[in-house]
Design goal:
Layout: E1 2-5, E2 15-18, H1 36-50, H2 60-74, E3 83-87, E4 96-103, H3 111-119, E5 131-137, E6 141-151, E7 158-170, E8 173-183, H4 186-202, E9 204-207
Antiparallel strand pairs: 1-9, 2-3, 3-4, 4-8, 5-6, 6-7, 7-8
Helix pairs in contact: 1-2
Length: 217
């Protein structure tokens, strides 16, 4: 059995991973892995410490703590069982969630068709044709990156979606790897694109015996 592994491939900055459960298995002795509240406070304080040249205004650490807590509680529900990472290059920005997971391959489904379906490369609901580009990964090989604009059914606002997908095959193992991002602010996604591309290229599959279940940070 294998799983996605980002931790060994890159320095996660400016990304923050949200644990999928509390306390996180294997990290019971680490305070910030015990509860969403402790996790949010730890990263809010740490992010502001990283920007030593900028001192937070009164209440800004608490504000970021509350924002991170909200994402910790709500973001995983958007795509259950996906790993969730928040892109947060500055403590005054709004986090941008990225969802990452392995997708089981349907029997008989070829690679090209599967990747186009996963990335919504041929979506008919978009306000303009999706921007479909080949996207190579040093760990996963040839894949797709698709940027699309679509109208949200609830708000009628135009949102932007960004997806990446690859087919992973090794021996008897096979799965599709999928990354999902979406935001009502197109600028937020476009400003983060270089960081997201770097993040996407760092994702790889690691066998059980090589992974440390995210212990190093």
């Amino acid at each position: 059995m294998s799983w996605l592994n980002v931790k060994h491939a890159m320095d996660l900055s400016p990304w923050i991973r949200i644990p999928l459960m509390w306390p996180e298995p294997g990290l019971e002795d680490i305070e910030e892995a015990q509860t969403p509240e402790a996790w949010a406070r730890y990263f809010a304080e740490g992010l502001w410490e990283d920007f030593a040249s900028e001192k937070p205004e009164p209440g800004e650490v608490d504000l970021l703590t509350n924002i991170l807590l909200m994402y910790a509680l709500r973001a995983p529900a958007a795509f259950p069982d996906f790993e969730v990472f928040l892109h947060l290059p500055h403590p005054r920005e709004i986090p941008l969630p990225a969802y990452v997971d392995l997708v089981e391959i349907e029997e008989g489904e070829d690679r090209k068709t599967a990747l186009r379906e996963l990335t919504h490369a041929d979506a008919s609901y978009t306000v303009e044709p999706p921007i479909v580009e080949d996207f190579d990964s040093p760990h996963l090989g040839a894949g797709l990156r698709v940027l699309r604009y679509y109208q949200d059914e609830d708000s009628n606002e135009v949102h932007v979606g960004l997806r990446y997908a690859w087919r992973y095959e090794k021996g008897t193992e096979a799965a599709d790897v999928l990354i999902i991002l979406a935001d009502p602010d197109a600028g937020r996604i476009l400003r983060a694109l270089d960081d997201v591309d770097e993040f996407a290229r760092a994702i790889r599959i690691s066998p059980d015996e090589e992974a440390d279940t995210w212990k190093s940070s």
